[in-house]
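Hey L., structure's done. Input below.
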Amino acid sequence: MASEKSFVADNENTPVSPYAGRWVARVRGRIIAQGGTPEQALHAAQISRHKERPEIIYMPVPFSYSPLIDKVRDVLPDQEMYLVGGAVRDILLNRSSRDLDFALPSNGISSARRVANALKADFMALDHERDTGRVIVTSQTAHVRFWILPLIAGTTWKKICMPAISPSTPLRLTCTAKP
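Output:
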């Protein structure tokens, strides 16, 4: 239809489904119903197509993130690290974030210094005891600061979502309970 809107993600040129973030029921590849839960999508499909058995799938929500995350991955290619804090919320809400916090198992200050040197950015050791460093990236279009801090052993984490950052895989969100 000519009146349909074409949604586009911030970081892509591909159209985004208007069903993004919803459960849909499909029959022979065509969406016949949708809902906020799988049960709602199935129920809506059964009302109009009670004899057919639909496939229920979740339509993912595309998200964009700062290109600085990829640059940090490139500088620290073999380093296990997690994006934590408000930047995770901002990614899920598809907002840009000016504050990126990375958690690493160790070497926070030395890793922050390596990142700052590679990005030609400012560096500050924030806390030697806790091995925490800050990198401040300033350009004409943005002022981004991020902290690189160690994962704290013995900390009780509730179930939270943190993007696992790996150089060999795309950025993905994983919900894990950290010890």
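Residues 108-119 form the longest helix (12 residues). The chain has four helices and twelve strands.

-- N.
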